[in-house]
Amino acid sequence: MTGSLIALAVLALVACGPYILDAYGIGLLIGAVSYTILASAWAMFSGPTRYISLATVAFYGTGAYTVAVLSEALPWPLVLVSAAVIGGVLALLVGLSTLRLAGIYFVIFSFGLAELIRQLITWFEVSVSGTLGRYIFLELEPRHVLWQLLALAAVVVLITGWIHRSRIGLALKVIGDDETVAAHAGINLARTKLILFVLSSVLITLVGAIQSPRWVYVEPGIVFNPQVSFLTVIMALLGGATKRWGPVLGAVPLFLLFEWLSARFPDHFSILLGLLFIGVVFLLPDGVLAAIEKLRKKKEARA
Amino acid sequence: MLLSTLVFGLVLGGSYALIAMGLSLQYGIARIMNLAYGEVMICAAFAAMLLFNVAGLSPLLSLVLLVPAGWAISWGIYQVMMRPLVARSGTTGRLEVDSILATFGLLFVVQGVLLVLFGGNFQSYAFLGQGVNVLGTQVALNRLIAFGLSVLIGGGLYLALTHSRWGLALRAVALSPGSAPLVGIEVNRVARAGFALGGALAVAGGVVLSMYQTFSATMGVIYTMKALVIVIMGGVGNLLGALIAGLLLGLIETFVSVYIDPGLTLAATYGLFLVILLWRPQGLFGGAK
Amino acid sequence: MRNVTRRALSCYVSAMAIGLALPGAALAAETITIGYAVSKSGPNAGGAGISTIPNYELWVHQVNEKGGLLLPDGSRAMIEVVEYDDRSSAEDAVRAIERLATQDKVDFILPPWGTGFNLAIAPLMDRFGYPQLAATAVTDMAPDLAKRWDRSFWFLGGGHDYGDALASLLGELKEKGQINDKVAVVSVADGFGIDLIKAARPALEEAGFDLVVDTTYPAGTSDFATMISGAAGSGADTFIAFSYPPESFGLTKEAQTAGFNPKVFYVGVGGAFPIYPNVTGGIEEGVMSVGGVDAASPKIQEYFAAHQEVTGKLPDSWASAITYTTLEVLEQAIARVGLDHAAVAEEISTGTFDTIIGEVKLEDNQLRDLWLTGQWQEGKFVAVAPADRDGASDPVVPKPAWD
Question: Do B221 and A226 touch (CB under 8 A)?
């Protein structure tokens, strides 16, 4: 409870950012908040179920593309609702058919899904609508994008809070520990996983939708950039996907680190990113939070 | 029309199979899902191009030089990077996720180094591109070589795996890494050998590919994905499965391109792949789990 | 909206809060900062690596060698570069512009590579008042865009320009009886390919051509055997591919393999790259593609030599020279009116400039005097269309057979 309140207070504080920051400051906040939501939404499903999903960009891109298609036809709030509905339906279809896959199969499936959707949209645009590359001319300024993202972040805080307190949360703790036990305890595994998957996908879709007016021009190659999936995974894992505040602790520092790296070492970004990945796997296998807890426990044990 | 489509499909499939067999070995035996696989291929392609452009060395000769190097380097990567992960994971399912993340990091490191060395430009050179008549259809000689190599390697390794002591050990580890030590097999050594062998195959694939394919420092992931699709279709660790699945994929892409719409070839690949994953996650040729 | 104190305060706050700001050295009068964010990694690195980055480096090198950028008072100021990697991500490209404009406060911003990214940053460049000389954006919307953002300048034309030029060139060849009325076209299902085929399809039909093959394929396709064999069996004298570099190369190799020798063989982006002769194994003679340069012009020859010397590689013969031209335009505009953005934009819009591609004068903020079709002739990629422009070479048709 206190956690949620503190988080909402922080979000409110960030919302004042546009009044004191310059455009770059706002740009940074947008990036940090959007990756925080992506990582949190990803961890909402992948944390407890331990499914590593690389489908983040499939939904993110779908959201952005929905905006590109509908932005002229519908008022903005309805565009967002449509994006959420499309993302949700897509997630439901995908979830119903794939959530029995496990391990490596799910990883690869989720990656293939992003590619499949990208190929299908491309094919549809080229052969049916006869266009490729759509323009988004909306009068939305960066601060508006930021505020919408913050509102979405508040929703994420509330949802995670609810999950942690509700029956589902309890169920999830059990699934994560042992699926068989969970099944015996009368938890509907399939349904719980599906709910989470849809929820997380809708949030990711909305991030893509809200951010897309910043890019003006949208084509599948731009919105289905696999890097989004990869960065989301590494951020969530660095922070600790099973902890409620883990993704935040991974996303914000990593985002800022990347920003710094790309400026200081514009020619060596890939190498440094790679080394970081390897470092996380070897040094912080359970995320920063778990590492801190371990340290604390060690200290307590000594005391 | 049908015959030429068949020939084109098989030749394309041959190069797909060549790409996929190494990955199948690495995942099947060493249990490492090597996402940097395509980068190893691209490295080999760059090396072959340099040897060809600078030293005038024929890519077929550089195979002799580069394949053992690929073996040695993969051996080293396993020893330094993968072994600690294997040791740490013990019997839990951790290794899968850890290896994905670690090799993912490796992917970026290799790609970054290639970018620094060669820039992001597209690379290509011409070698043995002349057409050869196969059943009335003109096929590039270099693609025919790729096809021949994949059948040769696939068949040869299959025989070695099924008919030698060494192959028996490899298969034992692939089937049941837990119980292999009980019959006196040193799992670590065998896994390392499997990983190195896979790396050597990746290098062979990269060198052959460079003869007809345009490549750049950032294109490795495309080949990794292609290989993954084929490995999953053929059944993980199933060498013959990878060979057949590769050929099948080539045929499917070619037929879709000719008879349906070239715009849907990649969509068909992923669509088919997803269907197989859902319908038979153990692969087309894998036994039931 | 923006007053000085708020700006200073915000700068201070972001620097404090985020700790990312570059050391905010007060700009010494004798340096001018030029900022750019281009794709140094990711899928766009291939394009940026050939047309954009080398030219930026070459230009900065040359200007600083001369003692710096010339200013109206006759003094010179050395260029200091601030560069970022946008990692081929639109969001990163946008943020990098925000950073260059408000954190680094660079004097001028050079655009990123590619149509999409130039469009993505255009509203921001406009908001911050920077002139944007888009050298690598091909868009039919250029006239509208130039109106929407009045400090944006579009140098590479639109799909219609290239499609129409090719159609009229082919139309003339058909009139002369050099080729038949059948054309086989394949195009990549991506922005550039679709723009061109959409323009070329009606133009070719109007010129009396029959599109016997007209297919699209997804970007990333690596096998072209079926497409080439389809084109070879179609009876067309003309083969056109609106393709990206990997496919342009793949299609060429496949055509050689299959012994496919149409009288006109045209490939898209990549056909004008210096590596193209290597792709063909030295038998590139007669292949047509997008762009072209006036190879006989001493200035172009000088540019090629300097590019080779400074960056270690040759430029491509389409967007490279145009990119360098935009930099010359910027340099001369600054020399005439100084650093004020409005004045520089006004000068670029109305002035006349002496560049490597000849005298440049923009029309409605667009460069319209462009080479639209080129052909490999005796080891050089020369311009053949528009045929009535000074420096155009005569097309060689039929293309000599691959052997």
Answer: yes
